[in-house]
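Submission checklist for the structure archive. All mandatory fields must be present; incomplete records are returned to the submitter.

[x] Identifier: DUF302 domain-containing protein
[x] Organism: Acidobacterium capsulatum
[x] Residue count: 152
[x] Sequence attached
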Amino acid sequence: MKRKLLMLIVVAATTLAFSGMAVAQSSIVKVESQHNFNQTISKLKSATSQNGLMVMGHINQGHVLSMTGLHMNGEAFLVGNPNVGKKLFSVDHAVGLFIPARIFVYQGKNGRTYVSYDRPSAELDQFNNPKISMMAKMLDKKLDSIAQSATH
């Protein structure tokens, strides 16, 4: 009887652990581009401004990693809107951990280019604040639109 109970607990804990991992992983969006790396970058910058956001920062991770001997195409963009940021930061300054949003464009080992980002709502819902969650969902839609425009 004890063995069956222990087995049931192990199965339940394993199931719960894997279901939590699936939820955490589902917030990452990865869209394959129909364009090459440089074209995707160009389209991403244009789509960002067309969606009312701006590139607030840029990290050429491929260049930085080349110093270690790893050669890859990969650039991260911090995108946001100062007016939306002001609303978020006025509710809780800790949103700075996630805002501005980060979009990563990279060339995979298969030679294809991808646009990837974490849904702002998945990150910002942790604040348990309806105002922050509402704005995060709006940002989700904007990032979805940017990724689609940059890749198609």
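[x] Structure attached
Curator remark: The domain at 28-151 is CATH 3.30.310.70 (TATA-Binding Protein). Confidence is low (pLDDT under 50) at residues 5-24.
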